[in-house]
Design brief:
Its cofactor is K(+). Pfam families: MMR_HSR1, MnmE_helical, TrmE_N. This is tRNA modification GTPase MnmE. Its EC number is 3.6.-.-. The protein has about 450 residues and is an alpha/beta fold. It has 3 domains: about 110 residues, 2-Layer Sandwich (Gyrase A, domain 2); about 130 residues, tRNA modification GTPase MnmE domain 2 (Four Helix Bundle (Hemerythrin (Met), subunit A)); about 160 residues, Rossmann fold (3-Layer(aba) Sandwich), CATH 3.40.50.300. The chain has 15 helices and 13 strands. The strands form 2 sheets. A 7-stranded mixed beta sheet has the order 8-9-7-10-11-13-12, sandwiched between helices. A 6-stranded mixed beta sheet has the order 3-4-5-2-1-6, covered by helices on one side. Helix 1 packs across helix 2, helix 4 runs antiparallel to helix 5 and helix 6 packs antiparallel against helix 14. The structure holds guanosine-5'-triphosphate (GTP) and magnesium ion (MG).
């Protein structure tokens, strides 16, 4: 990764605003900024300057701030020009910077340089993007905690504990011709088990953090006229979908984004499932099945007065097995039965009324459970933001350690056990970027916004 060039980008959001920020980072940052501003104020102090283009014409006047390497966000010389927030003006400034020797930054390149220069580890750099993308107050807090290094600290602790175990096992390799069987030591087994427990805890926290970032997609499905669209509107709190007593009202998929206790949810209303000659409705039903297969959970809605009909049973059996289903028995106001959660041999059923709103709080609670979202456990002390990539790495680490443990129990050769532990260690290192490939880095930073 070459960082001998100097990058420039407009760091504020596109569009017009009171202030617009041009950022420069790299060895020529000061020289380029001097070309634009004439002189620079002392490091870390703001100075008012005229910003000029290559011809010397004044483009704007504003504040300049500069940071000397390594004491900056990127760890390089870094200059920020605060101009007025006009898109054309800022573009002229960017062009002037390029004329003076800068190159336009790729998305995420400032954070990438911060990572390369050891200012942030990879999980922290990702947290920067998560903080910018945060969709709720809870998500902001979680991203901030990751950025502070909470997640990284826990990972480092686990990695260090694993290293000690590895030293033990590799010691057994080195002294294999002695009489003592190091691997049979109960303390080693205990240490490994305890470590595995700590990893499980971190996995649980990480999956909470992932939910907070990525949320969950839920499809509402069922026969026509059972109240699917009414339920969507109730959850969303707006009249998003058309509701009518005519079966077959909904055809298109309708997506609504909502937030429950800080967790983002995408709920999709679908066409009622039935046999029909109407080609448009048939297409709607095809899309409904399609979305049910892609969703992370299905809310299957039926009319409580006829919720166990043969047709409902048939449709429920057609739902993809691997996707959790919550059966909603709607229109409790008409059936007269109490709103409640019913645990049946077939799974969880929930009786409510989408029209009156009775039982909707129970539904919200069930949705939280479906998502594995536990706001009590995820209080401000423990939650941090996380990504699928992190979860996958933790799962892989767990699998390697489990294999190692089985190896210990079944007297597998020390080499195999040591190798499994090494692979587990490597997985942990990939999360913080201690072990990383260029491909991985490229795919992470390219999803950042420009100027970050
Ligand atoms: N009394 C009562 N009526 C309801 C309830 N939920 C929905 N309805 C009524 O049932 C009818 C159908 O509601 P929709 O929400 O359009 O049903 P749908 O499942 O989306 O129907 P399709 O889009 O045709 O598949 C409407 O007249 C709603 O007002 C409920 O909980 N109680
Ligand atoms: Mg509908």
């Amino acid at each position: 990764m070459a960082t001998n060039d100097t990058i420039a980008a407009i760091a504020t959001a596109p569009g017009r605003g009171a202030i617009g920020l041009l950022r420069l980072s790299g060895p020529q940052a000061q020289t380029i900024a001097t070309a634009l501003c004439g002189t620079l104020p002392a490091p870390r102090t703001a100075g008012l300057r005229a910003f000029r283009d290559v011809t010397g014409a004044i483009l704007d006047r504003g504040l300049v701030l500069h940071f000397v390497a390594p004491h900056s966000y990127t760890g390089e010389d870094l200059v920020e020009l605060q101009a007025h927030g006009g898109p054309v003006l800022l573009d002229c400034l960017l062009q002037a910077a390029c004329a003076a020797g800068a190159r336009v930054a790729r998305p995420g390149e400032f954070s990438e340089r911060a990572f390369v220069n050891g200012k942030l580890d990879l999980a922290q750099a990702e947290a920067v993007a998560d903080l910018i993308d945060a969709a709720s107050r809870e998500a902001v807090t979680a991203a901030q905690r990751s950025l502070d290094g909470e997640f990284s600290r826990q990972l480092t602790q686990l990695a260090e504990a694993l290293l000690e175990i590895r030293v033990w096992v590799e010691g057994a390799l080195d002294f294999s011709d002695e009489d003592v069987d190091w691997l049979a030591d109960a303390r080693l087994h205990q240490r490994l088990q305890q470590w595995r427990g700590e990893l499980a805890l971190l996995q649980a926290q990480t999956s909470q953090g992932r939910r907070l970032r990525d949320g969950m997609t839920i499809a509402i499905a069922g026969q026509p006229n059972v109240g699917k669209s009414t339920l969507l509107n109730r959850l969303a709190g707006v009249e998003a979908a058309i509701v009518s007593d005519r079966p077959g009202t909904t055809r298109d998929l309708l997506r609504e984004h909502l937030i429950i206790d800080g967790m983002p949810l995408t709920v999709i209303d679908t066409a009622g499932l039935r046999d029909t000659d109407d080609a448009i409705e048939r297409e709607g039903i095809r899309r409904a099945w399609d979305v049910m297969h892609k969703a992370e959970a299905v809310l299957y809605v039926s009319d409580d007065r006829d919720a166990d009909s043969a047709e409902d049973q048939r449709l429920l059996q057609q739902l993809p097995l691997q996707i959790p289903v919550l059966h909603i028995r709607n229109k409790s106001d008409l059936s007269g039965a109490p709103t409640q959660v019913l645990r049946t041999p077939r799974g969880i059923e929930l009786r409510l009324s989408a029209a009156t709103g009775d039982g909707i709080e129970l539904l919200r609670q069930q949705l939280r459970e479906l998502a594995g979202w536990n706001p009590a456990a995820s209080d401000k002390q423990t939650i941090f933001t996380a990504r699928t990539r992190h979860l996958v790495a933790l799962q892989a680490a767990a699998a390697h350690v489990d294999t190692a443990y089985q190896g210990l129990l079944h007297q597998a050769p020390a080499e195999t056990i040591a190798e499994e532990l090494r692979l587990a260690h490597q997985q942990l290192g990939e999360i913080t970027g201690q072990v990383s490939s260029d491909d991985l880095l490229g795919s992470i930073f390219s999803r950042f916004c420009i100027g970050k």
